[in-house]
Every structure is written in C-alpha cells, then in structure tokens.
Amino acid sequence: MLEGMFSHQWIDVLSQGLANNCENPTSRARIWDRDAEGRTMFWDSQAWQGIEEYQQFIFNSHAAELAGNLLKATEINFFFDAVFVRSPGTQFSTPWHQDEPYWTIEGYDTCTIWMPLVPVKKKNALAFVPGSHLNNLIFDQYNFGNLNPDGKSDVDQVNFTGIAQESIPDIDADPERYNVVSWDMQPGDCVAFNSRILHGGSGKLDENQELKVFTSKWLGDDARIKFRECGMDPDHSEIMTQYGLKPGDRPGTDLYPKIWEAEVH
Ligand SMILES: O=C(O)CCC(=O)C(=O)O
Predict the structure, then answer these.
(1) Is residue 152 in a domain?
(2) Best exposed site among 16, 73, 152, 167 by fewest CB in 10 Å?
(3) Euclidean distance between CA atoms 216 and 250, whole angstroms
(4) What count of Cα atoms within 13 Å lies in the side-chain half-sphere of residue 209?
(5) By alpha-carbon position, which residue is closest to atom 3 of ligand 1?
(6) Per-position b or e across 16-25, b if 16+ CB within 10 A of its CB
(7) What is the count of structural domains for the chain?
(8) Is the backbone peptide bond immediately before 88 cis, with ω within 30 degrees of 0?
C-alpha cells in the first residue's frame, strides 16, 4: 500500500471519468450484485478508449512509471482498466481469487494499481494474502460470470476444473492464519499488487458509505499473450486476434500501448 501516491487533481480526473463511465457503460459492463434493498455493485472494464479522463490518467500520470519501478521493468504496456462501484451500504464482497489465471496474459511481471476514489476503511478495503503470488499455484477459483443478477447474455465464463492444482482455502474462516492484510485508505493512496496474489473482500459497507474504485493493470517484461481453454475473464482473445496479436506475443499495438520505458544509463 502506497500512501499519497496520486494528487487530488488525478483523483478529480478519475472521479469525473468514473461518473462518465457509469453514465456511458461499455457493452462489457454489468451489475455483479444487487440485493433486496436495491444496493448494487457495478463493474466495467476496458472503458478507457471511450473515456477521455481515463486516457489522461493512463498516458500522463506516473502510474506506468510506478508499475515500471515496482516490477523493475525495462518497459511497461497498459493492459486494461476496471472499475468496482458499490452503492452505499453494499455488503457484497469480491470472492478470493488470483487475476492471472483469468487473463489473456501470462507472466510474473504484471501489476494492478487499486485506487479508491473515496475514503475506505481497512475492514471494507480489498484484502490480500501476502506472499501467495510466490507459490506457483493455480487455485480452483470463482467463475465471476456467475455474478449476473440481471441475466446479461454473453458474459465471460471460466472453469478451472482440471487445471487448478488446489481448492481455494477458506481464508475468511481464519484470516489471521493467512496473515490477511488490508488498509485504511484515502483518495490518492493505492495498493499495487501482483496478478498472482490471492485477493478479495472489500464491501460490507456501513449504511451511508459508498465505495468507488478505479483499477489499472500494467504489463512488464515477461508478460506474453496466452489464450486459455478454461475460458478467460475479461476475454480479450477475439480483439487481440483482430489486432494481429497471438499467443506468445509481447502485448502491444494501440490496444495495449507502451506507456513507459526505463532510462538507459
Ligand atoms: O475492488 C474489488 O472489489 C475487486 C478488485 C479486484 O479483484 C481486482 O482489481 O483485481
């Protein structure tokens, strides 16, 4: 967790972008959870091509440099954005998962920058199992396509049966055993995490508390395109193919622009 990484100007830009995004969702957007009181968790992804404020952040903020330094990369490409918007009081918690097994990318040198655009308490923030990105395990984890109370069609699906090496442990039953961490965070703070780390939670909000999160995903040196038979979420395989990208390629083109390069000394 990195405190005060982004200025209030960037938070304002992203907040404006998120408002635009919620008014003009992509075809990928959907509600992940809607409870009996009408509280919702809204998700959208890869909206950046249509949202100018997201483009400003991706191309002009120091997010790519931050990812580059953390990953000790020689270059950084942008992968995609995703937003997680919980209306006040939403209880929905994101299931524990790793990101890489769902992605159309494989590699160790990847990271997500998770940024709350409103203050969030430790108990409501995304939580992590430290070190779990190092164990080379793919867990039998959740099919996020099941999060679809409105019955949207053409939702990405995954099924890790036969691929996963282990069941996902019941982390919530004994968070101390897994050294689970999360933090009180202010707008401007972020968590940068490896796509192999087990993470989940967030939600369980107090009655009047909302949560608006912008995430950006960044690719370092060893990231390569991979199409997975177990399904992918978000599934970029079709658009990657349209852009001439194939398994084994280094992601690039206008779809995954190179944003940052290390200085050569
Ligand atoms: O904020 C959340 O609830 C989920 C975030 C997440 O899983 C991610 O960014 O990979």
Answers:
(1) yes
(2) 167
(3) 18
(4) 16
(5) 94
(6) ebbebbeeeb
(7) 1
(8) no
**For the segment 161-208, what is each residue's pLDDT rounded down to a tens digit?**
988 888 999 999 999 999 999 999 999 999 999 999 999 999 999 999
DSSP line for 182-241: ---B-BTBBEEEETTS-EEE-----TT--EEEEEEEEE-TT-EE---TT--TT--HHHHH
DSSP state of 57: H
Containing 118, the helix (H) or strand (E) segment is: none
Is 265 inside a domain boundary? no
Residue 1 belongs to some domain of the structure: no
Domain annotation covers residue 14:
yes
Domain harbouring 154, CATH code? 2.60.120.620
Q: How far is CA 23 from the centre of its chain?
A: 20
**Binding pocket residue ranges, ligand 1, CB within 6 Å:** 82, 84, 94, 99, 112, 114, 126, 199, 202, 213, 215
Q: Which pair of tokens denotes residue 105? A: 């990318």
Predicted confidence (pLDDT) per residue in 73-90, tens digit? 999 999 999 999 999 999
